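Practice problem: predict the structure.
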Amino acid sequence: MFEKRMFPGGIHPREGANGKKVNGLNPIRSLEAPPRVIIPLQQHIGAPAKPVVSQGDHVRIGQKIGEAGGFVSAPVHATVSGTVHDIQDALLPNGTMTPAIIIDNDYQEEWIELHPSDHPENLSAQELQTIVREAGIVGLGGATFPTAVKLSPSGGKKIEKIVLNGAECEPFLTADHRLMLEKAADIIDGVRLIMLALDVDEAIIGIENNKQDAIEIMAASAKAVEGIKVVGLPVRYPQGGEKQLVYALTRRQVPNGGLPLDVGVVVCNVGTVYAIDRAIREGRPLIDRITTVGGLVQNPGNFLVRIGTPIDHLIEACGGLQSNVKQFIYGGPMMGMAIARFDIPVTKGCSGLVALGEEAMEPKESPCIKCGACREACPMKLFPSRIDAFCRHDRFEDAEKIGVMNCIECGCCSFVCPAKRSLTQSMRTAKNAIQRKRRRDAARKAQEEAAQKAREAAEQAAVIPDKQTAEKAGKEA
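Answer:
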C-alpha cells in the first residue's frame, strides 16, 4: 500500500450548495422516454457509425440502427420503439453537426429478442470482445473510447491489471457514486467476468474518500471475489484521469503519447463495467446511461436516461432551471462544454448537466505575472503559461516541442491562474492547429506518393514499347 496515493499536480475545486453532498443523496430515477429521440451516429472516439435503417422503418428497442464504421468505432441502437422519422444532421455539444437517426416514440416499449451469454463464467477473450462490441459499449466516464478496442490488446501487449475508475472527481457529478451505491454487486460481477475472460488476476477499484459509503459497499461486495480490492483515494482533481489514476493506484507511469495498456493496465469506468455486465447477463445493448443534473435546477438528481433524449426533457424532469442561471454545462464544470440550446441530445458520454450562476462568468484577463501556479497544478507536468504565449503568437510548432499534445484539457491551469488567462483554451487551440497541420501533411504526402507512382507507371509503360521496337529492329537487321 502507498502512504499517499497521489499524482503530480491537481487541484481541489470547491462546490456550491447543490454539489456532491446534495446530489449524492439522490437515488437514481428512471426517466420516462421522450416523444422523440435524436441518436447521433458519432457518439464515440473513432469512425462514426453507418446507418442501417431508413426513413419510415419501424424499429424496436435495442435494434442496431448504426453499424460500426471501423475497428475504432461502435454501433448505435434504437432506444425507443417507433418509426424512423428522418436521418439528418444534429447538433452536438461541441458545436459540430453530425448525422443522427431521429425516431418517433410509439410508447409500445417493444424490445428486440435479447440473447444473454450461455456461459458467462467461461467466456473467452474473443467472445467478451464480441459481446462488448455488438452492445455498442464505450467509455462512460466521458472519453467514449470504444471499450472492445481496449479489451483487444495488440502488438504482443498483455493486460496484467484492471483499474476501475470510481473516482468521479468533477464537481457536482454523482452518477457513478449513486451507481456504486445501488448496483455494487452488478459492478463487481462485471469485473469478475472480465477478469475471467481476459485471464487477469488483479483488479483495483479507486474511489475518492468523499464517497466513503461507496467505498464501504463496494468493498463489501468485492470480499467474495479473489483479486479485487477497493482503494480510497485523496480528493484531488483530476483523480479520474486515466494516467493519474493508474499512477495513484499502481505507481506505473503511462508514457507521454502512450496508453495505460503500454504498462499492462486497462482502465474502465464503473458505469462501463456495469454496462458490460448487463450485456453479458442480459444480452442488453447500451441504450441508456445514468446522468447527473445538478447546480441551479429546482430539483437536482441522478437519472437513468435513454440515449438520444433531448436535454430539455431532463430539465423539465428536474422542475426547470432557477432564475439566476448564467451558464449551462454539458458534462462537468471543469471539462464540460457550455451550451446555449436544449435540443441537444444526451449521448453515451454525457455523465452530467450542470447549471451555474455568477461563478461561471469568465473574468477579464490580465497579463501573466509569471507566478508558476499553472505549472504546479498541471497533472501532466507541462508549462501552460509558456504554451499559452506560443499559441497567442501562432507558434504552434514551439508549443508542440514543449508537450502541448500531452495536455488532457483538465482545466487545472485556468482554475488556478490569478491573471485569469484562458490557458486551457490556448491548449485546445494549439492541439487543433497541430492536428490540422498533421492531416494536411498526411494528405500532401499521400498525393505526392500517388503522383510518384503514376510517374513510375508512365515511365514503365514507355519502356515496354521502346524495348519491343528495339527487338523488332534487331530481328529485321
